[in-house]
């Protein structure tokens, strides 16, 4: 009897350790984490748009309007032309793929992102952004564990130095 108890305890430890190691790669929460943009060490919240999220083996996808529609009536964040804008979230694991789309007067253009950062345009105006992030599976190719699109708007102003 004692041998069976020891085996059961070892099996329980083995299962718990195995599950714990696996859980490090799994996303948590019932939806994507909150995100923000950081400009000159000041954080501004980004609006969560469409997303797909996996939790406990079940997936959920939510479809939302685009950034221009979803941010209608909201004040854009003021930023100086050419200033660095950094995207962040207090969440682990971090997404391993990103895509940034800039929208100005209905014209869309993809931006280069370096270290989760990009530079604000040099031309004054209101710009809308869609920041898409993916948590791609590191073991299975082309498998996403979750994705989310975050939206924000910038009001680009010329700095007094540039005028």
From TrEMBL:
Name of the protein this chain belongs to: Lipoprotein
Highest taxon of the lineage: Bacteria
Source species of the chain: Virgibacillus indicus
């Amino acid at each position: 009897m004692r041998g069976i108890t020891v085996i059961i305890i070892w099996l329980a430890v083995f299962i718990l350790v195995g599950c714990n190691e696996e859980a490090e790669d799994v996303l948590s929460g019932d939806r994507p984490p909150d995100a923000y943009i950081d400009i000159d060490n000041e954080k501004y919240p980004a609006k969560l748009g469409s997303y797909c999220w996996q939790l406990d083996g079940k997936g959920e996808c939510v479809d939302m309007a685009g950034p221009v529609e979803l941010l209608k009536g909201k004040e854009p964040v003021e930023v100086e032309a050419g200033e660095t804008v950094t995207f962040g979230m207090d969440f682990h694991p971090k997404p391993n793929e990103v895509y940034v789309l800039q929208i100005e007067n209905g014209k869309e253009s993809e931006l280069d992102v370096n270290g989760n950062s990009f530079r604000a345009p040099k031309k004054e105006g209101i710009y809308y952004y869609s920041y898409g992030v993916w948590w791609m599976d590191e073991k299975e190719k082309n498998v996403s564990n979750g994705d989310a699109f975050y939206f924000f708007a910038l009001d680009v102003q010329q700095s007094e130095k540039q005028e």
